Amino acid sequence: MQKAGAATKAFSRGQETQFTADAKRCMSLLKQAESAYLGGKIKRHDQLAGEALKLARRSKELQQSVDPDNAELANLADRLVLASVKALGLSYWNEETPEGNQRALPLLTEARELLEAAAQPDYASLFEVYEALCQLYVAMKRLGDYEDTCRRALNLKEKQVGQWHPDVINYLVDLGWALEEQNKYAESASIKKDALALSLQHRGEADTGTISLKHGVAYTTFLAEGMTQFDAIQKALSTLTVEERKKFSGNVAAELQSLR
Questions:
Q1: Nearest to 84 by CA among 107, 117, 53
Q2: Which of 57, 109, 116, 192 has the largest count of CB atoms under 10 Å?
Q3: Residue 253: pLDDT band by 50, 70, 90 thresholds?
């Protein structure tokens, strides 16, 4: 993160002093929070990150009210807010509790919006936030929001590495699952077919992941045709060869038993 520099002439001496002091203190608090988190002192981390966020928001409010057109100061203030909401949001998310999820969601949503609006995308941070939001939405049974986040992550990954890169496969799989869980079977099957094509290209037909995708495409296609889950699973198995069934990693027996 860049250091807090001198403010422009639009700031009075007192405002300049306050902005600079708040920015420096915020950065110091974030460093202390990181050390606390790495040391397993989660409550201390959250306290420090919370204090940093208050200072970051105050810096942003001051910049917007006094010199809203100053891109350098706006960028610094945005970075401070982003670092603070991301640190606090991820910490709450890692609690893996309903209360933690509720606290994490608005913070991580804000972090996503700031990262997406940045002129130069921070891919690592954005994917980290996408992953956390996806897990939050699944835990909260907000599958429509989960689908939207999967699409955002997929689009970003394709932008980063290209549509035919093997890293895209998992993002397609996640989106396919999100669609399937909402009974959007035809669209889910289409997305899974794209994932299967990439898996065949990069991993080969004998790969267990490829075999799982082959079964998944057939299963979702049969669901789209109106079959029950029980019948679709069994018929999808029949599309695999004997050797593929031996390698298939899905716990089909348990799943079939649960559907009886």
A1: 53
A2: 192
A3: low
Summarised one tens digit per residue, pLDDT across range 67-111 is: 888 888 899 999 999 999 999 999 999 999 999 999 999 999 999
Terminus-to-terminus CA distance in the chain, angstroms?
Answer: 56
Q: Which residue has the higher pLDDT, 248 or 20?
A: 20
| Superfamily in which the 165-260 domain is placed by CATH | Tetratricopeptide repeat domain (1.25.40.10)
The 3-class secondary structure across the chain, one letter per residue, is CCCCCCCCCCCCHHHHHHHHHHHHHHHHHHHHHHHHHHCCCHHHHHHHHHHHHHHHHHHHHHHHHHCCCCHHHHHHHHHHHHHHHHHHHHHHHCCCCHHHHHHHHHHHHHHHHHHHHCCCCCHHHHHHHHHHHHHHHHHCCCHHHHHHHHHHHHHHHHHHHCCCCCCHHHHHHHHHHHHHHCCCHHHHHHHHHHHHHHHHHHCCCCCHHHHHHHHHHHHHHHHHCCCCHHHHHHHHHCCCCHHHHHHCCCCHHHHHHHHC
pTM attached to this predicted model:
0.86
